Amino acid sequence: MEPKVMAVVRQLNLFTYICDDTFERFINTGSLQKFSPGTILIQQDNAVNFLYILIEGRVEVFSSVNGRETTLDIVEPINFFILAAVLNNEANLQSARILTDSLVFMIPAQQIYHAIENDNFFTRSVIAELSHSYNRTVSDLKDQKLRTSRQRLANWLLMLNKIQKKGDYVDLPIEKRLLASYLGMTPENLSRVLSSLSKYGIKVDGARVIFVNMKEFLRFAKLDSPICGIKP
Cis peptide before 78, with omega less than 30 degrees from 0? Predict the structure, then answer.
């Protein structure tokens, strides 16, 4: 792993405060691999043998039952994923699929266990990350149950606007089909919802969403609600 990439990984909340020896052990025992789109990195119902850190690309975390799939998360670099499944050491409840050409650093699960037993700073970081993950899960559940599909999409667009920092527009980073699955809609419903949001201050031009009246759009999205928005 290049030093500059290693430095960015070190700044992830999970690794910021851990001992240098622990981080060096992760780097020395881990492996950096390239994956092509469509590769199933993690299979549902199987044990997870690595903690995955996405360096480049994009990964979809999804689950399936009786032939039906739903998108649970979209992982962007640089970030780790499936931490809870690694710690559980049981059959995993979700799968992970490579969406674009990706570079992934994999730390063996045994090294994670060793670090938890021997590095109190790492243990605290793991607890903090699991707490954050739990809060996000509750937030997403509340969003699904207490917001309409239009409000869910509106919140997601505003969160994306915060990340992309492009001002009066955002560019959808994923296919609309995938976005629909992530937001709990069908692709057809997503198209209808996008069209219906035009009266609340947006305009859709292909994969670009333009905020024509941000004040009206914010009012509709109700960001002052106690429910947190979906994180892109």
Answer: yes
Q: Which residues of 80-110 are buried (b: 16+ CB within 10 A; e: fewer)?
A: bbbbbbbbeeeebebbbbbbeebbbbbbbbe
DSSP-derived pairing of the beta strands 169-171 and 79-81: unpaired
CA atoms of 48 and 80, how far apart (whole Å): 14
Q: How many helices (H) and strands (E) does the chain have?
A: 9, 9
Which of 1, 16, 216 lies closest to 107 in space, CA to CA? 1
* CA dist., res. 124 & res. 27, Å (int): 20
How many Cβ atoms are within 10 Å of 116's Cβ, its own excluded?
Answer: 16
User: What does the pLDDT look like over 34-90, one tens digit per residue?
Assistant: 999 999 999 999 989 999 999 999 999 999 998 889 999 999 999 999 999 999 877
CA separation for the pair 135, 141 (Å, rounded):
10
**Single pTM value for the model:** 0.85
Q: 62: helix, coil or strand?
A: strand
d(CA 27, CA 36): 23
Q: Which domains does the chain have, with CATH numbers?
A: 3-143 (2.60.120.10), 147-221 (1.10.10.10)
